[in-house]
Structure formats: C-alpha cells, structure tokens
Amino acid sequence: MKPAEHFIDLAKSDFVMRIPSATARRTFLYLLRSGLFSYQPGYRLDRRSFDSFLVMLVLSGSMDLDLPTGHLRAVADQFVLVDCYSRHCYGTDTETDVLWMHFDGITARPYYDLITAKLGNVISLRNPSYARTQLREIHDMATDQGGYSEPEMARHITDLLTEFAVENKPGVTAKRSRTIDDSIAYIADNLDQSLTVSSLAERAYMSEYHFIRIFKKQTGLTPHAYITASRVDVAKFLLVNSNLSLDEIRKQCGFSSISILCNTFKHQVGMTPIQYRRQNGNY
C-alpha cells in the first residue's frame, strides 16, 4: 500500500497492514503494520493515540521526536521504540529513510517498560546487525504474498525486542560479546557452506588468534570444534527425523564427503551414522 501522508516519497515508500487472529491476540506478540518510508524535509506527524507500539530503524537521515519522555533525535543506525497509546509526534527536516513496524501483544507493554527504563526511547546498539536483520525479516515476511506463520512472526518480534532488552546501558561492559553471538547465528544458518575460522574472524573484524580466544572463552569450544559439533547435531536430527540419504545429509551438514561424515560422526557419537539411525530412527 502507498502512504497517503504528505512529504513522503511515494516512489520509494510502501507499507502493509496485517490483521492478527484471535489466537495471536491472546497468545503472541503480533504485527499490525510494517513499512519502508522515504520521508522528505517537512514531514510531521502529531497523533494523540494509536493502539500499538512502534519500532523504527533510521536507515539514513534523522528523525526528531516529541514524546511524553521529552524531545529526542534518532540518526542513522539508531532504533526508536514508541508507545503509540500515548500522544506522540515525530518528523524530519532532512531526507530520511526509515524501516518500521507497529506491533502489540500480551507482553508488548512489559517489554516496552523494561527496554525504555534502561535505554530510553532512542536505542543505540553496540552491534545493530542482528536487530536490523530481525526487523528486515519481519518486513519481508509481512510483504510476502504467501502469508506467514503467526508464531514465527512472534518469534522474530520477540527476538528483536529481546535484543534491545539485553543491551547494556552506555558505559556498561557487556558480559557477552554480541559479535560472538552473531558468529554463532551465522554458523547455524550456513552449516552447508564452507566455514573457516579465518573467514569467521574476518566477518567479526578480529584477528584469527583473538577470535579463537574470545570464541572459546564464551562457548567453551574452539570455532572449529563448535562447527563440527553443530554439524554432527544436525546430522543426528536428520538421521532420526528424515529418510534422506547419507549423501544428502552430508551436503546439508557441510561435510565434504560421506567418509568424512562417517568418521567425524563415529568419533563424536561412538557409532556410525547408519548404526545411529537404526538405533534411534524408523528407517
């Protein structure tokens, strides 16, 4: 859908509305609207109330806000969390691109109170990549013509808000490196690809030595050992819950050959993949 407001570049802006089911309203955090807007200088919105909470990610430019908590400004790579049940105003005097969503749900208010009490309404994350990815995934799911699973959507919204909730106040040292968490997520999503310690260290903007040291400190395993254990875990699941051939399983798990799959699996589990399937599966 195209916005009807003034000072929005219609060629670059779009949004979608979603009506949650009764089950979602009772059970989940749920999406109401999602959009990507390109605001032009002079845009202003002044709204007394709108029954939802709003998350914005400023992609470029800046957004000025007038909220019950005060006058604020958000710039590129900052997130904004707004209680739209209260009066809220925002606008910009520069060209500004914003990815946003309106959401609600049974835990929306507690999340809002927890996050804003610690970080305020304008949120700067030490590493915004994970939260940015979650908000983009929410928007992509919302605009998918095939629809989406409401529990899955709730998971992404929860993950986004949790990312805000676990962020420390400025000046407080984080107990866990977000970079390592991002590496773990990347490994999980790319087990079928070639994963080298050097490439992971490069993605984390660390030397290989420093990356290995930090990774082991936080996970108890070296990156190589973690990747191997993850691949074996996925292989175990597929052996028991599918009828895929060993060759198909080794491809999905990132093993370069069946023999390497079998040797690694036996070393980790104490039996061959076929023995494991016979003992635990139905095939």
From TrEMBL:
Species in which this protein is naturally found: Bifidobacterium apousia
Residue span, HTH araC/xylS-type domain: 181-279
Keywords assigned: DNA-binding, Transcription, Transcription regulation
Keyword flag DNA-binding: yes
Domain of life where this protein originates: Bacteria
Pfam family of the protein (one): AraC_binding
Gene Ontology molecular function terms on file: DNA-binding transcription factor activity; sequence-specific DNA binding
PANTHER family documented for this protein: HTH-TYPE TRANSCRIPTIONAL ACTIVATOR RHAS-RELATED
Protein name listed in UniProt: AraC family transcriptional regulator
SUPFAM superfamilies for the chain: Homeodomain-like, Regulatory protein AraC
